[in-house]
Amino acid sequence: MLKNCWIIDSGATTHICSKRELLTDINNVSTAQKIFVGDGHAVTTQGTGNVKLAAHIEMKNVLFCPDLHVNLISVSKLLEKGCNVYFENETCSIWKGKQKLFSAHKTNGLYIVEGHT
User: Fold this and answer.
1) Is the pLDDT score of 1 beyond 60?
2) CB 50 within 8 A of CB 23
3) Which domain holds residue 97?
4) Model confidence over 61-81: pLDDT tens digits?
5) Helix/strand/coil (H/E/C) assignment for every residue in the chain
6) In angstroms, rounded to a whole number, what is the distance separating the alpha carbons of residues 33 and 98?
7) Which of 113, 97, 106 is nearest to 59 (CA)?
8) Residue 94, number of CB atoms within 10 A of its CB
9) pTM of this structure
10) Whole-angstrom distance, CA of residue 15 vs CA of residue 19
């Protein structure tokens, strides 16, 4: 189930996608890069690309890691792009200026982006 979701991750240093079909402008990596995840094991990147979350929201340089089995949105990357991230009660909202880009609702301890698969 989580392979079809996007999870807001305050610990991720970059956006990561596990589904190749969600990526556009894919660049295969010449040297595989290891990414260490929360439980300490490593997954290997197979490329980078862009992901369109909605008509006006595109994430660039997203790592493609099919072995991860989830899709992660990096809070630190959002902040680098000038977004503000607000956690309140059971919701996480992402804003750019006065425009709300998207939100996530807390489910089983994870903030899952609604309406995007």
Assistant:
1) no
2) yes
3) 2-113
4) 999 999 988 899 999 999 999
5) CHHHCEEEECCCCCCEECCHHHEEEEEECCCCCEEECCCCCEEECCEEEEEEEECCEEEEEEEECCCCCCEEEEHHHHHHCCCEEEEECCEEEEEECCEEEEEEEEECCEEEECCCC
6) 37
7) 113
8) 22
9) 0.90
10) 13
Residues 6+ positions from 56 with CB-CB distance below 8 Å: 101
Which pLDDT belongs to residue 37?
82
* d(C-alpha 57, C-alpha 38), whole Å: 26
Position 28, amino acid? N
The two three-digit tokens of residue 15, written as one number:
């956006």
The CATH number assigned to the domain holding 31 equals 2.40.70.10
Q: Domain total for the chain?
A: 1
* Cα→Cα distances 72→26, 30, 97, Å: 17, 23, 23
